[in-house]
Specification:
Strand content: 5-15%
Number of helices: 18
Distance between the termini: 37 Å
Number of strands: 12
Largest sheet: 6 strands, mixed
Radius of gyration: 35 Å
Structural class: alpha/beta
Length: 603
């Protein structure tokens, strides 16, 4: 499987942010996704009731402070003592700070507990998905769902949710108090709110397209950077530096142009909002002054309170609009998470399964057919009986179906036609876990982990001694280079063994397969990335580990499979030739031609 790139979407104040040219879209079903997210977090929402209460209290404290400030002004004009009122005002500010601190403290705990559960649920689901799911998905895109999309949900839960609750309570409370103080002035204030909301909708209608184009261009530029950095040796070898620079400049210029337009349009919003706010503020000040002069308003402090409420009213509306955009991005991320959770897992074990305690290793392929898609059949009709202890080599051109046979044996995929039996029973009649423990596998793509060498060799084995690990490494021919490492078997491999050569990584995976002592061995291109000297070591190791075991060896280097009991030449989804090395050479067919070509004896 190939890592075809990454697509990490994110969020920027409600505007979609880029992956590798992939945009985050609005949720398809906002209500349904929220309901499902609520059900998914059941049992991990303890404390949300306290968050709701604290949000109401924080809003209440911020709402009451302008009213108390007005009373201070009224008390000063009336000549009444103001000390007690100032103490009350100070207490409100302190309480508001304390409440918001407790709110953030609780929300951080609750939010991370919920996200921990979502991420764990998603990872557990991925472990159950069939190989076909990963074959049709980009690895980076899946990583994005597990990290960026879940982080978007986390940000919304931890930050946006508390702000949304607080602003919602604040708007309701301010409007109630403003209406009680003066319905007329409240109506004038709502006119400004309507103008701001209309202006925001008008501007964002243009900026949304521009920011989307910006993120698309940024994704293209990021992809170009990633491509050029990873292909830098090739670029230098073919003297393509100047061409690459021109292509980069072209993409960079497109991003720059779009970004300027987007920022100019978005820059209109705040100045115009400030103008509307200031005009509204002046209108309220003039109108309230006139009402005070003619006696409609009797308290001068009411004017002060109302002016403060006017300033306080518009901000929550704008913030809620931004939060709503963030909210949509997070819900869109949640939908991407649910898409994985909705994928069909690997087939479950049948209710009545056969035990697989002492497998002999006799395998029969009976008219096996398989296609990764219904339109393209990879294996068309494969029939073969493999007695226990037989060493089978599979050769053929690229794409002929060699590795597919291995995937079917290990049940990474199930046959679409025919059947495969092990010791007389269909593979599907065994528990999946029991079946896969029967196989010791060395795949074409090495898979090492950020752990010590000995831990990589003992991967999947719980109770093995250091002597057993050394013995397995010796059989695989890996002990010599391991001893040369800085800490020997205790050397920690960084980045999946990137510091080792491809051949050394392959030797470690062979040692891992040796340590399993599995009755059936599979070696898929085990010698594809090693030199001829190492190839001979692996060939001897293969003879040792395959002795007495049923084994399958896929190889392009035909010299490594000469001693196999059966050699299969797969072509166009069928067995084109079958026999021992000597039989196939005498036949003078495709295999003989391939062997002579590799050995330099082709005529």
């Amino acid at each position: 499987m190939e890592n075809k790139g990454t697509t990490p979407p994110a969020n920027l104040n409600g505007i979609t942010r880029p992956g590798r040219g992939v945009l985050v879209i609005k949720p398809k079903d906002l209500k349904g996704t929220l309901l499902r997210l609520w059900n998914l977090t059941k049992g991990r929402r303890k404390g949300l009731g306290w968050i709701l209460l604290l949000s109401a209290l924080a809003s209440g404290a911020s709402i009451l402070s302008p009213y108390v400030t007005g009373n201070v002004i009224t008390a000063i004009r009336s000549g009444n003592p103001i000390f007690s009122v100032l103490i009350l005002l100070l207490a409100l500010y302190v309480c508001e700070w304390l409440i918001k601190f407790l709110q953030q403290f609780l929300m951080a705990s609750i939010g991370q507990r919920i996200i921990h559960h979502i991420r764990l649920t998603l990872f557990d689901k991925m472990k159950t998905l069939p190989l076909s799911f990963f074959d049709r998905r980009q690895h980076g895109e899946l990583m994005s769902r597990l990290t960026n999309d879940v982080d978007n949900i986390s940000t919304t839960i931890s930050n946006s949710l508390t702000l949304l609750l607080t602003y919602g309570f604040t708007i309701i409370g301010i409007l109630i108090i403003m209406f009680c103080l003066s319905p007329l002035l409240t109506f004038v204030s709502l006119i400004s709110v309507g103008l701001i909301l209309g202006l925001t909708k008008l501007v964002t209608k243009h900026t949304k397209k521009l920011f989307a184009e910006q993120q698309k261009n940024l994704g293209i530029l990021n992809g170009k950077i990633e491509e050029d950095i990873s292909g830098l040796p090739v670029m230098k070898a073919f003297c393509r530096e100047e061409e690459a620079e021109r292509e980069f400049d072209k993409k960079n210029e497109a991003l720059c142009s779009t970004s300027i337009q987007a920022l100019i349009w978005s820059g209109y919003l705040m100045p115009l909002m400030n103008v509307i706010n200031n005009l509204c503020y002046v209108a309220i000040a003039v109108l309230s002054g006139m009402l005070f002069v003619n006696g409609t308003i009797s308290r001068i402090g009411l004017i002060t309170s109302f002016l403060l409420y006017t300033r306080q009213l518009t901000r929550p509306f704008v913030e809620i609009a931004n939060i709503y955009n963030n909210f949509q991005t997070a819900v869109a991320g949640a939908e991407r998470v649910f898409e994985i959770l909705d994928e069909a897992s690997e087939p479950k074990d049948r209710e009545a399964t056969f035990p697989l305690d002492n497998p002999r290793g006799e395998i029969v392929l009976n008219h096996v057919q398989f296609g990764y898609t219904p339109e393209k059949q990879v294996l068309k009709d494969i029939s073969l009986t493999i007695p226990a202890g037989t060493q089978v080599a599979i050769v053929g051109p690229t794409g002929s179906g060699k590795t597919t046979i291995i995937h079917l044996l290990t049940r990474f995929y199930d046959v679409t036609g025919g059947s495969i039996t092990l010791d007389g029973h269909d593979l599907r009649d065994y528990r999946m876990e029991d079946l896969r423990k029967v196989f010791g596998v060395v795949l074409q793509d090495t898979a090492l982990f950020a752990a010590t060498v000995k831990e990589n060799i003992a991967y999947g084995q719980n109770d093995v001694s250091m002597e057993q690990i050394r013995e397995a490494a010796g059989i695989a021919g890996a002990d010599a280079f391991i001893e040369r490492l800085p800490d020997g078997y205790d050397t920690v491999l960084e980045q999946g063994g990137a510091e080792l050569s491809q051949g050394e990584r392959q030797l470690l995976t062979i040692a891992r397969a040796v340590l399993t002592r599995a009755p059936i061995m599979i070696l898929d291109e085990a010698t594809s990335s090693v030199d001829t000297v190492t190839e001979q070591k692996i060939r001897r190791a293969m003879l040792n580990i395959c002795e007495g075991r049923t084994s399958f060896i896929i190889a392009h280097r035909l010299s490594t499979i000469r001693d196999s009991d059966i050699i299969l030449l797969i072509k166009d989804g069928v067995i084109a030739e079958k026999g021992t090395h000597e039989e196939l050479m005498k036949r003078g067919g495709k295999y003989a031609l391939m062997y002579k070509t590799q050995s330099g004896n082709a005529v």
